[in-house]
Each structure stands twice: as C-alpha cells, then as structure tokens.
Design brief:
Elements: H1 9-20, H2 43-70, H3 77-83, H4 93-102, E1 111-116, E2 119-124, H5 130-143, H6 159-170, E3 176-179, H7 187-198, E4 203-204, E5 218-220, H8 224-228, H9 233-241, E6 246-247, H10 275-278, E7 290-292, E8 298-300, H11 301-305, E9 315-317, E10 332-334, H12 340-355
Length: 359
C-alpha cells in the first residue's frame, strides 16, 4: 500500500493501521487505528504512571522473594507448586533452585495492560506494542503541524531512543542484542522496533554481522520455554552467571504467567503485600472448589452461575505457563456476558484444571 500524503489524515491513519495490524487479521480483536479525537491525560494521570513503576517493582520484589523461599522451604511447597505448575521437569524445581542460588534479578523492560489508568490487569515483560507506540509517536510528530494540539509532552520522550540508551548503559556501550522474536504476539511490531533501535546504536544478531551467538550480551525473549529449549541456552546461562551477558527477563518461569497476581489477595500471602500494591490490581483469586469474591465471601460455582449476569461481572483467565493459551486473550472469559449454562461449563472446567494442577 502506497503511503498517502501526510495532509490526508484519514487515509494516513488507515495506512498506519494496515501497516501495524497485519498480524492480527485472524479475526482481529484489536485494531491499530489512531483516533480522530486524542485522549488527553491529566497531569495527575501522567504522574500516576510514573509513581506506579515503584509499586510494580515492589510487587515483583516481594513475589520473587516469596518464590525463591518456596524453592527451599517445605512449608511453602504450595506456593512453589502454583508457580511451577505446568513446567517440564527439566525446568522445574531443580533448575530454579540452581538459578536462584546464584543470582536474582528483575526484568529490565515491561509494560502494563490498564483498562483505566491505575488499574493493572496484566504486567508483560517485555510485552508487545513497543513498535506501535513508536510508530504512533512518529506519525503524530509528522502530523503535528496539521493538528491544533499541544503534544510537546508526548514528544519529550523518544521511546526507541530511551530503550536504546538504557541497553547501551547496561552493556557498557557495547550493545550486541539477540532478540528471539518467534513468540512475540505481533512480530511486525517487534521487527519495526528493532529497525528503529538500530538507528540509535543497538546491534542485533541476524541484522549486524558483528553480532554472533558467542558475543551477544543482551538476550531478549517473549517466551521462557522458547528461550530455555534453545540450543544456546545453557551457554547463555553460564555466561550470565559469569556476568558476561544479561537476560532482558530473568530466566525464571515466575515472569511468564499470571499466577503471581493472586498473591496480594490470597489469605495465605496477602500479609506480605501493602494496600498500595493491592490498589493497582483488580481483586484476583484462584478458581478452586469454591469461588472467593472481593468481599471475602466463598460461593459455590453453581450459586455463582445462578446469579444475574450483572452480578457475575468477573473475568476468568488462564493463569499458567502453557504458551499456546496464556497470551493474546486466548483463554479469557467475561462471565457476565455468558448465560448460566455456559458460565457453569467454563467454571467447572477451571475447577477440574485446579485439581489437575492447571490453573
């Protein structure tokens, strides 16, 4: 599709949409159309995003410490089993014990899903959408002269440049990146972002001849199991422990599932988390024999399904590590928009999964 003139905003936004939503065309649930009416965030909302970074980091610090202790403490075996639920034994208990004996780290880059600012439904590391955000910023910058908007604050930060400078600093100005893109939810988005960060000094395996598997020093992935089953993973792991390279995401299964989102609310672990942490997440609980509601009430699946639709306005999400269903809204159900029969089938299936260590 030929790029239209930038003065024709309607055609240009359709061009951007076609360019960046190509890989979502299989019954696409999301579109990349830019709105004719921009959403203007208040100064308070913008500051909220900045402040939540520290709260999110605290959430991961506590959750990772809990997981690490569970690997060695028989009194915390239930925590351990929740997190290692569906992982192949090769990357189960023994692997994680050896990993955490040597080093502990957090992801360097992540993004959140927030239906409304301040209410986080997911944290993804690194997540998709980085290229789309950069493309949106680039498009708006081109269109700025044709729009009566004050977007100076949006143009203060160049997404790709900031990411590039951070990776340069982490790698001591020698950024040789191996980005495993196969499991990214929108590969075109990821490849576009790679192309832009190369302009800011990052060098990538497969793009720049200087970078090899032997000297790559910043490893990025979208799937723990894709990374861990690669032929070079053990070599990367040894180099990581020798402080010769960094993983963008610490190679722990903890960061590739949604189970940790229950911990701030679960009676067995909520004492570890502050109200500030709980306030950035919607109430989340595990589907077991009964359901726990936000007010602490336990209710049977049957009684829940017999409620009126507006009284079961909850989402059910798969929380485990199966890479075929734990991303892209593939196992997400709005229970308030199903009839009682379908609601019962969905929740009974989830209950059976609980007893089969599939959460």
């Amino acid at each position: 599709m030929k790029q239209p003139a930038l003065t024709d905003y309607i055609d240009y936004q359709q061009y951007v949409n076609n360019l960046y939503s190509t890989e979502l065309d299989q019954g696409a649930k999301f579109l990349m159309n830019t709105s004719l009416d921009p959403a203007i965030l208040s100064a308070k909302e913008v500051q909220g995003f900045i402040d939540r970074y520290h709260t999110i980091k605290s959430f991961w610090d506590i959750s990772q410490d809990l997981f690490k202790r569970s690997l060695f403490d028989p009194n915390l075996v239930e925590i351990r089993n929740l997190i290692l639920n569906e992982v192949n034994s090769e990357f189960g208990l023994k692997y994680h014990q050896n990993l955490y004996k040597q080093r502990v780290d957090l992801p360097y880059f992540f993004r959140t899903d927030e239906g409304i600012p301040g209410m986080i439904t997911e944290i993804q590391a690194p997540g998709s959408g980085w290229g789309t955000l950069q493309a949106l910023q680039t498009s708006i910058k081109y269109l700025e002269r044709f729009m009566s908007l004050d977007i100076r604050s949006f143009n203060k930060v160049h997404i790709a440049e900031n990411v590039s400078e951070t990776i340069k600093e982490l790698t001591h100005k020698n950024p040789f990146v191996f980005h495993q893109v196969d499991e990214s939810s929108v590969m075109l988005d990821t490849n576009y972002f790679i192309s832009i960060t190369r302009k800011h000094g990052l060098k990538y395996l497969g793009h720049d001849f200087e970078v090899t598997l032997k000297n790559a020093n910043f490893i990025r992935t979208h799937s723990f199991l894709e990374q861990a089953t690669g032929s070079t993973f053990l070599e990367f792991l040894n180099r990581f422990h020798n402080e010769e390279l960094l993983f963008d995401i610490f190679p722990s299964i903890l960061f590739f599932q949604k189970i940790p989102l229950i911990f701030p609310f679960w009676t067995k672990t909520k004492h570890l988390y502050s109200d500030a942490i709980r306030n950035i997440f919607p109430f989340t609980s595990l589907v077991a024999d009964n359901l726990q509601l936000e007010n602490g009430t336990l209710i049977t699946i049957e009684d829940f399904c017999n409620r009126k639709p507006h009284e079961r306005d909850y989402y059910l999400k798969y929380g485990g590590t199966d890479g075929t269903i734990n991303w892209g809204s593939k196992a997400v159900y709005h229970l308030g928009k199903t009839d009682w029969k379908k609601c019962k089938i969905i929740l009974q299936t989830a209950r059976e999964g609980y007893h089969n260590k599939c959460y």
